[in-house]
Amino acid sequence: MPDRFSFLPATADRLTDIEAVFDDCSGGRNCRCAYWYRPNADYKAGWGEGNRNWFRSLLAGPRPPGILGYHENEPAGWCGVAPRAVFDRLRRSKPFAPVDDRPAWSINCFIVRKPFRRRGLSRLLLKHAVEFASANGAECLEAYPVDQAARASNGAELYPGALSMFLDAGFAEVARRLPARPIVRLECR
After folding, report:
1. What is the CATH number of the domain that holds 84?
2. d(CA 34, CA 87)
């Protein structure tokens, strides 16, 4: 099945495809990755249509905010990846505060449409997000996945990805300020 997937930057001309992915996920439909970019008050006030409009303006910017996965030309998944500095929540977060002063990029969100789940698409999105960030000058990549073994409940949302997926891709844990949310890093150069 992996050979039937392709990956492209999330650009404004792919808005319809991106929205198809987000709209297939109840959280994604209303969040649009605004959680990471916008101050909490703006994010909550924009839940739904406000975040949708905000995301459309983000796509009009000079740098794609992520990548889109396709299965035989059908939009199948999303991975948010961009320089850490653009994410307001990361700038203000104590648990996810920088581990050093290197200009890292961050991978912070995965959404896979229901028909494509449990096929390894998140791992492929991660692989292509690393390639995308590297091609756009990232020195290192960070992520803030869920360590399912340390969670009190298995019902946790996995939008930031599972720790095992990142470790399997060569990321290393560099900090852990919350029991179930490590910071992992991959050197790109």
Report:
1. 3.40.630.30
2. 9
Q: What is the dihedral of CA 155, 182, 117, 125, to 10 degrees?
A: 160
Number of domains the chain contains: 1
pTM over 0.85: yes
Q: Where are the alpha helices (DSSP H) in 63-189?
A: 88-92, 121-135, 163-168
Looking at residue 108, what DSSP letter applies?
A: E
Q: What would the pLDDT profile of 77-129 be if each residue is shown by its tens digit?
A: 999 999 999 999 999 999 999 999 999 999 999 999 999 999 999 999 999 99
121 with 112: CB under 8 angstroms?
Answer: yes
Contact between 113 and 17 under an 8 Å Cβ cutoff? The reply is no
* SS3 state at 135: helix
* Angle subtended by helix axes 15-23 and 49-59, to nearest 10: 150
CA distances from 115 to 27, 75, 140, 158 (A): 17, 11, 32, 17
**What phi and psi, each to the nearest 5 degrees, are found at residue 38?**
-100, 150
SS3 helix, strand, coil % of the chain, rounded to 5? 40, 25, 35
Q: Are 148 and 120 in contact (CB under 8 A)?
A: no
Parent domain of 38: 5-187
